[in-house]
Structures are given as structure tokens and as C-alpha cells.
Amino acid sequence: MNFSKIFILVDENTHAHCLPYFLEKLNTSIVIEIIEIESGEINKTIDTCVGVWNTLSDLDADRKSLLINIGGGVITDLGGFVACTFKRGIKYINIPTSLLSMVDASVGGKTGVDLGHLKNQIGVISNPDLVLIDTNFLDTLPRNQMRSGLAEMLKHGLITGEEYWSKFTDLSKLTLDDLDDLIYESVMIKKNVVEQDPNENGLRKTLNFGHTLGHAIESYFLSNPEKTTLLHGEAIVVGMILACYISTKLLGFPEEKTQLIKNIFVDYYGKTTISQNEYATIIDLLKYDKKNNHGNINFVLLQDIGVTKIDCIVDEDVIIDAFKYYDN
Fold first, then answer.
1. Are the C-beta atoms of 321 and 247 separated by less than 8 Å?
2. In this predicted structure, what is the pLDDT of residue 31?
3. Do residues 28 and 6 lie in contact, with contact meaning Cβ atoms separated by under 8 Å?
4. Which residue among 127, 136, 155, 253 sits deepest, i.e. has the most Cβ atoms within 10 Å of its Cβ?
5. Residue 135 and residue 102: Cα distance in Å, rounded?
6. Does the keyword Zinc apply (predicted)?
């Protein structure tokens, strides 16, 4: 396609560490403009979108412009939403630079922003024209960001089956060489699910395993000034342990597998401190989860590894027991 202009959306980190590498490989005579936003989930807001929309207007973007999003999940989610809504939609490409965005955010067409501290409340489903994954970008990623992305791959293992899950049972032995194949497999798992159920009417809901409580925990830590903000994967790991416990109580998921999963996750990620007087506030945040309908809070649970059940309604006392199990 003959684009009128190319706009590249980055944050200060990807501007410094990823953009030069990308521009070296880009061969075009089309005018390129760089738009930088501040990094971090705290900036994934409509206010940031307004700034980008205004910049696009000021730089004479039109309906034949292309937006290239180079960054993690915040950039690909927000940039995708900006592209879908600017002049009722311009073409966009996602180039994920974090492990999390490679295996999760950049695939599946979910775009959007947070509403205050409530995650992903505003957005549309719209697929980019291209997702370009280059694992060389991972060389610039801090260890905690790598671990955050790995959490989504662990989730893919638990919802897909023993064969993929078993590759993660000794996380200390994983090398960067292993990672290329595992990333490819993870992307294909998500792609296959999304293609069968693009609008999340059934099967795609399984990708939310661990996310119902995980997102509530992430939102709570984001909104509480006394807490250190959790990365997405760090919160989802807690959510998955809680969901496994609830699965054991409600669906007969083997107790020894719940304990094994908890041990693997806690050994690798450590424990997140959540005190009993915080349970109620976190549970209250569940009502904002996007999977809810008719006032019911819907969980994705496991009958076994690779055997999921969606739209499970869970009593509050079971959720509290799950927190206590995590804490002990």
C-alpha cells in the first residue's frame, strides 16, 4: 500500500534501545515521524491518547497514514486503539519488544486503555495489519520484565495441555535458545484460540485463566500508594495460584497439581504480600472484570491441565480460602 506518512509510536525506553535497530532495517522514502509517550501502565489512559491524536493531527496525518507501535503491551494496546479511532481508523503494525507483548498483548487484536486504575475498560477489538516479532529486542529487557512475560506462557501451558506445560516445570534450566521456540509455540496457541473465537464468546475466555483475580490484584496494587506496583505477570501468577486452588475446591482439579504449580511459581516469582484486611478490597474490584455479565463474576477454572471450564461462578468464601492458601 502507498502510505502518505509513517508514524512510529515509542516510549522513552524503546526510543533509546529499540528504535535505532528498527530504523536501520527500514528501507523507505516515505516521511517518518516519531511520537514518544511516557512508559508504564500508569500512562495507559485516554489522556495519553488525546496527546497522540493531537500530535497526529498537528503532523498532518491522514487516512492513508500508517502507525507503527514499537514497545510493550502499553504501546501496542494504546497505539492500536489510537489507530483504530483516528479518522475512524488508519492502518497499524505492532512490533512487540517485551516478552509479555510478544506472547500476549500484540496478538489477538485487543486494543484499549485503562479507566483510572481499572484495567482495559475502554477499547475495541481490531487486528493490526502485521505483527513483527524479533527476539533480538529481548536483549534489552530487564529480568523482571522477562519473568512477567513468562507468566503468560505458563498460562498457555496450563490451559493447553501437559506437553507444553511440562517444558516449564524447571524454570531455572530455561535458556534464551529455548525461548525462541517457546515464544513461537505460545504465539501459535493464542493465535489458534483467537481465530476460532475472535469476539470472546466462548473458547477465547480460556485465555483469561488467572486474570480475574490477577487483574483485581494488579489494579489494587496500582491504586494503592503504599504498595509497590506489580508487573502484569507478577499479578497473574498470584491469580493463577488462586484459580488452581478454586479449581481444586469446585471442579476436583488434583490437589497435588495445585501444590506443584504453587511451588514452581513461588520458587521463581517469590511471594506477593497480601494481608487478610486487603482481601475484601481486592474482591470488590472483581465487579469491574470485563468477563462479567448479569451481575455474575465469571472465572475460568481447570478440571485438569489443558481441560478448562469457563463462566464459573465462585462464592466469596472460596475466594478468601484461596487467598489464605496462597498466604500459607
1. no
2. 97
3. yes
4. 155
5. 9
6. yes
Q: How far is CA 76 from CA 10, 95, 126, 158, in A?
A: 10, 8, 12, 25
Counting Cβ atoms within 10 Å, is residue 313 exposed (0-12), middle (13-18) or buried (19+)?
A: exposed
Residues 261, 266, 268, CA angle at the centre, nearest 5°? 100
The distance from CA 142 to its chain's CA centroid, rounded to whole angstroms, is 17
Residues 6+ positions from 48 with CB-CB distance below 8 Å: 37, 38, 78, 113
H-only helix segments in the chain? 12-17, 19-25, 46-58, 73-85, 99-100, 143-160, 162-165, 176-196, 211-223, 232-251, 255-269, 279-285, 316-327
Name every residue whose Cβ is closer than 8 Å to that of residue 110 and which is 6 or more positions away in sequence.
77, 80, 120, 123, 125
For 170-187, the pLDDT digits (tens) are 887 877 778 899 999 999
Q: Cell for 35?
A: 511520537
Task: Identify the burial level of 34 via C-beta atoms within 10 angstroms of its C-beta, where 0-12 means exposed, 13-18 middle and 19 or more buried.
Answer: middle
The cell for 262 is: 504453587
Which residues, at least 6 apart from 305, have a Cβ–Cβ distance to it below 8 Å? 157, 158, 161, 162, 165, 257
Collapse the DSSP code of 204 into the 3-class scheme (helix H, G, I; strand E, B; otherwise coil) and give the result.
helix
Q: What is the pLDDT of residues 63-110, one digit of tens each?
A: 999 999 999 999 999 999 999 999 999 999 999 999 999 999 878 999
| Secondary structure letter of residue 44 according to DSSP | -
- Rg for the chain (alpha carbons), in Å? 20
Please give the domain boundaries of the chain with CATH numbers for all domains. Answer: 6-139 (3.40.50.1970), 143-327 (1.20.1090.10)
pLDDT of residue 253: 98
Nearest CA-CA partner of 141 in 220, 217, 71, 60: 71
pTM score, whole prediction: 0.90
